[in-house]
Every structure is written in C-alpha cells, then in structure tokens.
Design a protein that fits this description.
Layout (H helix, E strand, L loop, with lengths): L2 E6 L4 H12 L4 E8 L7 E4 L2 E7 L10 E4 L3 H13 L3 E4 L29 E3 L3 H17 L1 E10 L6 H15 L31 H14 L5 E8 L6 E9 L5 H9 L4 E3 L11 H5 L5 E8 L6 E8 L3 H16 L3
Parallel strand pairs: 1-2, 1-5, 2-4, 5-6, 6-7, 8-9, 11-12
Antiparallel strand pairs: 3-4, 8-10, 10-13, 12-13
Helix pairs in contact: 1-8, 3-5, 3-8
Bound molecules: adenosine-2'-5'-diphosphate (A2P).
Length: about 325
C-alpha cells in the first residue's frame, strides 16, 4: 500500500529534512503534499530531486491525507492537527502541543514503539530533541540496571530554534568578525561566540520549559514516574547537533565496560569512545547530517558508587526531530 503524506511546515528546517528523509528511506509515498503559511504558498520545496509546490495550510482540505507530519510550531498543531485527525489522517506532531496529554502517545522509535499503536485521538507526539537522543542511549541502560537519577547539561545547537536561528548565528558571526554589532533578534542575547543558559520560557520553579521537557518526557516515555531528572539546557553557537553531558545513578552498579558493550549492540546508538584525541563524538565530526545517536566519554563517576558518565551527541534535526517522525510514520505504515 502507498500513502498520501502531508508535511506541515515543509519550508522549515525540520520540514525540509522530513521531506529528504521520506525520500531517502523510500517511504511508500503515493502523493506528497507540502504545506506552510500563506507567506510561502506558491513556492516550491524539494522531494527526492523533484519540485513540489507549497500550499497554504489555512485553505487546504485534509480529506484523503493518510499521514501528516507536523512541524510548524505548537499553535499551528493545536489548531490544525485535530482537523487532520478528524479527516482520517494519523498525525505525527513534532511540537510540544500534545506531548503531555494522557491520550496521546509520546514515542521514540527505538524505545517504546508499541505505544504508537494506541492513539485514540489519531495523534502521535514526537519527543523533544534533547529527550530523544538522551533516551535512545539511556533506555537500554535503564532496562538492565534501573536508572534512579539523571543529571544532564545540554549543549544545544541553534537549528533547534528553526531557520531564523540558523540565520542569526551566521549573521552575528559575520558581523562580529567585521567589527559590527551582533544585534540580537531571535535570541535574547548574542549567540555567536557565546552560550545562553535559557531555552524556552522560564517556569515558576526556576527551571525553563526546555529543561522540564527532559523531566516530563523521560518519565512518560520510559513509563516510570520515579526517575529523577536534574537538567540544565544551554544554547551554544553550533549550527547542527545537540550534545549532552549526562551523569546517571543506577540501582545496580554498571561498569564503563559493561555500558559500552551494551550500547554497542543497542539500536540507533553508535559508540565512539577511544580515550585519545578525537576519539569522541562532536556535533561537527560525527552528528551533523547523520542518523545515529553517538555516545562517548563513557566512564564511572568517581564521586558516586553507582554513577556513570556519558557524552551523547546527535543531529537534533534528524534523530531529534525529522528522522524519528519518519520512523513513526513507518510504524504506522506497517500497521502499528
Ligand atoms: P513559512 O515558511 O510559510 O513561514 P522553522 O521552525 O524552521 O522556522 O519553520 C517553521 C515552519 O512552520 C515553516 O515551514 C513555516 O512556514 C511554518 N509555519 C509557521 N507558521 C505557520 C502557520 N501559521 N501556518 C502554516 N505554516 C506555518
């Protein structure tokens, strides 16, 4: 069977990659529909070397769409995803609009694929990019050793904030190298040659929403509300690829060697862990443009008897967003 597939937000950083990955993985597409705002309607996007005209989401009739991949922000999802679902489409939503609803599954394809089968509202939520890559690496360790607590600091690239954020890093870098002002627009302060410990809104508990996504989503995806997560989320001047310094505490002691051996045979993970210069993953040398979640710097915590440290790097636009969304579409297509 072949499917009519709509990509909502097709002109964006994630939407463009969704189209590329659908083509790359030869998803059984009968008809591809590219949707965005009125601003870009009439232009075109690339799908496997062929041009597809962009249509205006606001005036599009979703009847006949089998699978809709949404990545146009939370408010667009809130308004249009239920309309697509009511018209019979399975919606795979990359925004945070439905992630915490009990009747919407939140699925990482390597971790809890069976959850995608139960979707009473016709919507499957795609997790936040930072949670996604962290759990591809940590879920196998949780199953074997029982994770009690996760300390995580993220180093998140600007592409996670969309095309305008990629442009801002480029523009500020050029400006500063030419002795001009950075002129922050998309980010609250200068991002070029800087770090910003602030992603998404501040909440009453002093954490940002991006940080709390790591808490809420980890518990929902692993189906374990007892896991403690202590996150700090930081934006860094990297174009593609998020990195995470992760320290876990487990119920059963796990040695670095056992963790390495387990991760080497875990789906979606690639271990890069030679204890020498360059023997670790970075966004530029490994993650950018590639599918795996790379894990390196695996070592036992010298301050805790059952602690393990890991460095986890992945392309936030691919596994963190578009790739997982397409993998979920593959599960749906396979009858899951
Ligand atoms: P457009 O290009 O027409 O603005 P990014 O995250 O890279 O900024 O991309 C956001 C995506 O979401 C773009 O494809 C953008 O389309 C789309 N989008 C934003 N607002 C709307 C809207 N109100 N209706 C439809 N698409 C939207």
């Amino acid at each position: 069977r072949r499917f009519t597939v709509a990509v909502v937000g097709a002109t964006g950083a994630v939407g463009e990659t969704m189209l590329n990955i659908l083509a790359e993985r030869q998803f059984p597409v009968d008809r591809i529909i590219a949707l965005a705002s009125e601003r870009s309607a009439g232009g075109d996007v690339d799908f496997g070397g062929r041009k597809v005209e962009v249509q205006d989401l606001a005036t599009f009739d979703p009847a006949g769409v089998d699978i809709a991949l949404f990545s146009a922000g939370g408010s667009v999802s809130k308004e249009y995803a239920p309309k697509f679902a009511a018209a019979g489409a399975v919606v795979i939503d990359n925004s945070s609009a439905f992630r915490y609803d009990d009747d919407v599954p939140l699925v990482v394809s390597e971790v809890n694929p069976e959850a995608a089968k139960n979707r009473p509202r016709g919507i499957i939520a795609n997790p936040n990019c930072s949670t996604m890559q962290m759990l591809v690496a940590l879920a196998p360790l949780h199953r074997e050793y029982g994770i009690e607590r996760i300390n995580v600091a993220t180093y998140q690239s600007v592409s996670g904030a969309g095309r305008s954020a990629l442009e801002e890093l480029g523009r500020q870098t050029g400006a500063l190298l030419n002795f001009q002002d950075a002129d922050p627009q998309r980010f609250p302060v200068q991002i070029a040659f800087n770090l910003i410990p602030h992603i998404d809104d501040f909440l009453d508990n002093g954490f940002t929403k991006e940080e709390m996504k790591l808490v809420w989503e980890t518990r929902k995806i692993l189906g374990d509300d007892s896991i403690q997560v202590n996150p700090t989320a930081v934006r860094v001047p990297v174009f593609y690829g998020h990195s995470e310094a992760v320290a876990i505490e487990t119920k059963k002691k796990v040695t670095a060697e056992a963790a390495r051996e387990l991760l080497e045979r875990s789906p979606g993970v690639e271990v890069v862990d030679d204890r020498k210069a360059g023997g670790y993953p970075t966004p530029v040398t490994h993650a950018s443009g590639n599918d795996p979640v790379y894990v390196g710097r695996i070592r036992e915590d010298i301050s805790h008897p059952r602690g393990l440290n890991l460095w986890i790097v992945s392309d936030n636009i691919r596994k963190g967003a578009a790739l997982n969304a397409v993998q979920l579409a593959e599960l749906v297509a396979a009858g899951g």
